[in-house]
Amino acid sequence: MKTTSFKSIVIWFLKVFAAGIISLAVLSVISYFYSYTGIHITNPTKSTDYTWLPGQKMNNMKEGFSSVKIDINGFNNLEIPNQQIDILLMGSSHMEAYQVNPDENCGFLLNELMTEYFTYNIGISGHTIYRITDNIESALNKYAPSKYVVIETNTVQLDIDLMNEVISGESTPIKSHDSGLLFYLQKIPAFKPLYNQLDNWIKTKSNEEDNDIPQETVITNEYRLILSDFLKITVREANKHGVTPIIFYAPNEHLSKDGMLTFETDEKYFKVYKETCEELGIVFIDMSDSFFELYNNNKTLAHGFSNTAVGVGHLNRYGHSKIAETLTAEIRKMEGR
What we know:
single chain; alpha/beta; 11 helices; 45% helix
């Protein structure tokens, strides 16, 4: 009977290890070009909860097709703020614009359309209106825009508890894994998709138990008062820094089977949000009409890509272009130009 020698066992394990390393390397190369967002780190300035690693490349063929290089501050800009910032753009992953090329996003296009002003974009994924409002004081302290702070939101139906957390200073920042084993594992492109899938699964399970979307069918006085207090944070900080606050609403779209375009907007909440902004002196811009115009004139949607479901996902280059055009027109109208 033939016995297995210790040497052959060692050789077998070495072959398995080598095959694993080679497989990981091949998968990492594929993952790097297909979808690699890199690593985010805690933002010491607190202008956002986190930034991406400065100078890192972000490649994407999963939702749209793009290649982005992050600037020295950890945001998606082609130009760095070595001059006076006039317009500070804040928002979520829609404004971060990882899904489109660097010369197709709203921040870049605003600089092309309004050459008299310099726009700097600190939009970053995961930063909904709650995180933006919680960070706005630090953001204005850090970047000190001279004219406007422009905030993107894709919802006007807010959650009372989340607003109260921001108002009371108890809102929890988004955590970054910027140290330890997980930090280094995220540098491996093949690991990143697995990590993202697990993270999304955990968030999905959490949202099943704690849904962020309010369930009220009637707008209460309590909701109105809390919304007002919540938006007053932006007004207070904007006034303190001598800038005009602008909030633009870029709603998600839905295209019916017969080609009708509708938006995921509850008119009751929209009306209250718009009225509260106007009462407080916030310039409120609704992108719905502009998105309708884009579709009616060009049969093009503001969201979605050729490799995604129709109209589903992040803003595409047409959506970014329409937002930049609309913001430019509104700002020039306010300035009497």
